[in-house]
Amino acid sequence: MFYIDVILPIPLKQTFTYSVNKDEAGFLKQGHRVAVPFGKSKVYTAIVYQVHDQAPQGYKTKSIDQILDQTPIITPQQIKHWEWMASYYMCTLGEIIKAALPSAFLLESETIVSLCDTVDVDPAKFSDAAFLVVEALQQRSPLHINDVRAVLDSNQVVKVLKDLLDMGAIEVQEEIYEQYSPKLKKYIKVASLYTEQEHLSELLESLSRAPKQKEILLQLFSLQAQTKKAVGVTSLQKASGAGPSSIKSLVKKGILEEFYLKKDRVNYKGGPAEAIMALSDIQQQAHKQINTCFKEQDVVLLHGVTASGKTEIYIKLIEQQLSKGKQVLFMLPEIALTTQLISR
């Protein structure tokens, strides 16, 4: 019995072992792509890492679905480079491969398949399985690979889609799950109808028998005048002493309108921007040495412990380049520091 260890384009550290027959083991090399089942219902395009005859302990291996390449598409040198990247950036090899290879090279269950707008392919060239996929896409496009698996035998799906891609009959893209969602804050304003003085006067007069609602309206005007900004629902409740139901009642009547604005979850709450500080004697010495080194070489390493004043030297160097009309790329270890540095 022969086995292959493969790298899957998922954020898991280990490789995964699948069984192959003797002929497949003799054909496969590091860098080949194979379609493999994963879990109960998923299918992935995996990269062969090594071929061996050592059975894994503790579980029964699954067979591969399909060999996708005649020759390896990844070289050993590329895999070594990706291993170094995974180690250096403290991530998994699967994440590196996912980022490095085009989505068409890594068909998987999350892949979305759609028919090309202009399919200039002779239907006679389609295999029976390919014809079924094209027919399904003509009825409903796009489809997930799992939907295509329902049309075909699961062992064929990746190979059939690869053939259709090569013919230019289909397009693929990855379904993206957005991890960051901006925080939405609810604000309140007077309906546009009452922005004119005449209508506003009529409105205030009509609210003379509803003192609480009139107070809410007056407090809203007061807050807008004081802050010159949009007024949040919470701020209005606090200022007027009214409950949510009173404000909702004015919204239902069309007197007030609710709207939402995005609020960045990462805010710099530091003090005002500081002026560029004068360098100390040691900083001036380091600054001078850096400029001297730049005359002879392109890269200079400034080594110093935390809070030793390296940033002030960077800012001085940036100031030099900006004064010459040049640009600077300054990479920060923490996104929250960006606003502070730009303001300086």
Q: How would you describe this protein?
A:
Helix 8 (211-227) packs across helix 9 (233-240). This protein is 39% helix and 17% strand. With 344 residues, the protein is an alpha+beta fold. Mean pLDDT is 81; it is low at 176-180. It has helices spanning 22-27, 76-88, 93-100, 128-139, 145-151, 157-167, 197-206, 211-227, 233-240, 244-252, 281-294, 310-323, 338-343, and strands spanning 2-7, 16-20, 33-38, 42-52, 66-67, 111-115, 143-144, 170-174, 183-190, 231-232, 256-263. It folds into four domains: 2-101, PriA, 3(prime) DNA-binding domain (GIY-YIG endonuclease, 3-Layer(aba) Sandwich), CATH 3.40.1440.60; 105-174, Winged helix-like DNA-binding domain superfamily/Winged helix DNA-binding domain (Arc Repressor Mutant, subunit A, Orthogonal Bundle), CATH 1.10.10; 183-263; 281-343, no CATH class. Strands 2-1-4-3-5 form a five-stranded antiparallel sheet.
Task: Compose a concise summary of this entry.
This protein has helices at residues 22-27, 76-88, 93-100, 128-139, 145-151, 157-167, 197-206, 211-227, 233-240, 244-252, 281-294, 310-323, 338-343, and strands spanning 2-7, 16-20, 33-38, 42-52, 66-67, 111-115, 143-144, 170-174, 183-190, 231-232, 256-263.
